[in-house]
Every structure is written in C-alpha cells, then in structure tokens.
Amino acid sequence: MVEVRKQVNRIWLWIGAAVVLTAVFFTARHLLRDQLPVRVVQVRHEMLQTTVSTNGRVEPVVNYQLYSPLATTVKAVYAQQGDTVPAGKLLATLDDVEARSHVAAAESGVKSAQAQLDAALHNGTQAERQASTAEVEQDRLARDQAQRDYNALARLVATGAASKGELASANGRLQSTQASLRAAEQSAQHRYSSAEIARARAALAEAQAAWQAAQHVEAQASLRAPIAGTIYTFDAAPSSYAEAGKLLVEMADLHHERIRAYFDEPDLGRLALGQAVTIHWDAKPGREWHGHITRLPITVVTYTTRNVGEVLIDIDGNDDGLLPNTNVTLMVTISSTPNALSMPREALHEQNGKYFVYKVSGRELKRVPVTIGAPNITQVPILSGIEEGDSVATGTANGHPLQEGVPIKEVR
Asked: In terms of pLDDT, which residue wins out, 277 or 18?
C-alpha cells in the first residue's frame, strides 16, 4: 500500500513538473519573442500651416526697353551693363544719316502740301490769281467792245443804214463775250471746290505725320535713359550692326521688382489676394525674401508642360539682391492655425473612409479612431481621439506592417 502511494506521488510529481515546465516555456516564449521595432512620435500643439509651392521669375514692376529704330551701325557707347544712370543720360548713338535724309524729305513734303492747301484756300497760287485777273480784264474789254458794236448797229438799223442780220450777229458776239466774262469771274473766285480743299487738308495732315515720325526716328538714334535706374541688358558696341527693331538696352528701377509665379491649375482655387509668400533663390542659399499676392490669374495658360495660372507677387520691404529674369522658388501660406494639436501624416491611416492611428499603449499598439482637420503636406490636425503627449506609431524600422496587440520596442 505504501509502495502504491509512493508511485502515485511520483506520478503527480511528474505531472506537476510537466505543468511547470509548460508554463515556463510559454511564458519565456511570450517574453522572448521578437518585438516589432516601431518609430514613435508624440502628439503635440504647434503652429500648423498649409502651403503651396511653385516657381516664378523676377521682373521689374516697370521695365524700359530701347530698340534700334532703323537698320544702321552703332557710332558710340557711353554706358555698359550694370551701370546705374540718371534719367536722360546718353547711353549710345547710332548712325543717323538715313534718318536725317528721311526728315528732310518729310519736311519738303509738308511744305509742298502746305502750299497746295494755301492755293486751295486762296483760290490758286499767286501766278494763277494774276492770270485769272488778266483773263477777267481781257474778257471785260471784249464784252465792252461787243456792247459798243451792238449799240452802233442798233442805231444804224433804225436809220436803215444796217440790216437786221448784222444786228443779230453783233448780239451773238455780245452774248458770247458776256458768257466768257462770267466764266472767268467764276473761276477767279471759286477755283477749288470744298472737296478739293478737304483733300488738301488731309494731304497736309499726312505729310505732317510723316515728318513727325521721321523726327521721332532721328531722335531715337540717340539712346537716352528714360528714367533713373540700372541697365541690366546692354547689347551695343561701337561699329556693331543693329537691324531695325533690335533690342539694345533694358533698364529698370531694381528697387521696385515683383515676381510672376506659375501655379498649377488645381492649386488656383486655394489662392487669395494678400496671402503671404516666402521666396528663395538657389544662387543665394540661406537668403529669404517675403512678399504677398497682388494679382490673381484671369485665365489658364500652357507653361512648358504644365497648365498654370500666372500670379503677380509684390516683394515686401527690401528686394536687394534679386536680379531681373532670375528663377526663384515660392511657398505661399494658404492657412495658418496657431497652437493646433497635430501629428505627422505618416501616423494617419484610413479604412472605408474612417481615420485611425496606432497609439502606443504600454508595450503594444492600440488602434484608435480619430477625427482630423484639413492636413498640410507634412502634418495633420487632430480634432478628437487622442490628446497631447500621446505617442503614435508612424511606421516600422524593418518594413513590417503595423499591427494591433503586437509587442513593440520604440525607436526614434
């Protein structure tokens, strides 16, 4: 009996040992299994800004361009690119022989047209008026002589010394001389019609316009600074040839510049007048300029391979250092929320239209639904679901997916 009891005790002892070993095994397995390396961040309050980035080009607010008015050569230059010059400064002179010739020809045309108008207004030239006076006097003498002949023949017919046929011939000559006199007097007083006078006036106006145009071209042969400013393009050298219409000089007041920015079509609806803009130029890393939107686009155009709207941005304060025609990058602040509870966008997940995060709870992850506001490129505002100081997972260090209930170790 004692032996049986000993055997039963040994069996229970082995069963107990097996149970303990099993418990130790599973406990050790649970404690020693691989932990998921998870990158973790804390939810906190911070300034949350929504921005849009693009590129643009610097341009003067008012740009002045000087062109060659005709095909000619450059006689002399008195400035160079980069010079800051006063208004009226002589920059270059062009060979103006042809221009002066055109001015002389146009002036001659004005004088000729003026003479034609004077003749129309005064019933002909002086020679024509003198000839008309002589013709009228001659016709008047002929008429008077015909009248005397007619009167004499009329007396003779009354006495029977002349026939009625002779009297009729004398009357015909009298009528003819009277008609000639009336025509000569009419011509002397109204040689030109109102339509001819109007044509003469128009011809004079055309000649004067041509003269003014020729004088303008001649004046442009001397290139002068239209304003006090800086020359940033100068394409003229002594004895060089300049074709008509060639751009020779560009200058502007470089203290008054703006930026023409190119925003992609989907971003245009988010822009508004007055929005703040941050400006960077790769040629001066670390330097930053600021501005604001002053004009929104009225149409969409093709820019390289993009459909964009052109937006004008005024530079605030001192724009020193930005050169015309340089390419810059821009960041427009669409909205700004101070002290917003936020987290990185990598921590946000979405399923069936609902958002959630993996919150760190002890040494595991817990899936927690959240309500969010409008995110920007990097941050998401949190409206409810988690609080400041909570830790959320943004991803794993080994590429494995995040899972709820899996043991984790935090990595930063």
From this structure: 277
Residue 184: inside a domain, yes or no?
A: yes
Domain that includes residue 243, residue range: 63-95+221-251
The 10s digit of each residue's pLDDT in 37-50 is 999 999 999 988 88
Beta-ladder partners of 359: 366, 392
**Do 81 and 156 share a domain, yes or no?**
no
pLDDT tens digits, one per residue of 147-189:
887 888 788 878 877 787 877 887 888 788 888 777 766 766 6
Residue 126 has pLDDT above 70, yes or no: no
Q: pTM to 2 decimals? A: 0.56
Q: How many domains does the chain have?
A: 2
Same domain, yes or no, for 228 and 91? yes
Q: Is 167 a domain residue?
A: yes
